[in-house]
């Protein structure tokens, strides 16, 4: 599995946090504050569940990407590195 895109996207999100751009969705969302970010993660999570219940594979993929993206924005807003989440997942992986 190629996870390079996740690192790339997270770096862009952090850049928008540190160097806001007027036309940037991420900059705008972060400027609205943590509560707005939390609400967006909640909304995207609900949309993912609805898509999964509907069963359309393409819609599930689309909504999963939205949910993952907004979780990454939340992590950046809270100053949590994406790599730390990856390390936590690795710790949970039990050797076979």
UniProtKB/TrEMBL annotation:
Cellular component annotations (GO), alphabetically ordered: cytoplasm
Any one GO MF annotation of this record: phosphoribosyl-ATP diphosphatase activity
Signal sequence, start to end: none
EC class name: hydrolase
Family: Belongs to the PRA-PH family.
Pathway the protein contributes to: Amino-acid biosynthesis; L-histidine biosynthesis; L-histidine from 5-phospho-alpha-D-ribose 1-diphosphate: step 2/9
Native organism: candidate division MSBL1 archaeon SCGC-AAA385D11
Protein name: Phosphoribosyl-ATP pyrophosphatase
């Amino acid at each position: 599995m190629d996870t390079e895109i996740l690192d790339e996207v997270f770096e862009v999100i952090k850049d928008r946090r540190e160097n806001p751009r007027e036309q940037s969705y991420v900059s705008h969302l972060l400027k609205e504050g943590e509560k707005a970010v939390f609400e967006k993660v909640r909304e995207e999570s609900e949309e993912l569940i609805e898509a999964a219940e509907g069963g359309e594979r393409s819609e599930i993929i689309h909504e999963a990407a939205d949910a993952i993206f907004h979780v990454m924005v939340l992590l950046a807003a809270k100053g949590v590195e994406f790599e730390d989440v990856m390390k936590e997942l690795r710790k949970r992986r039990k050797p076979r």
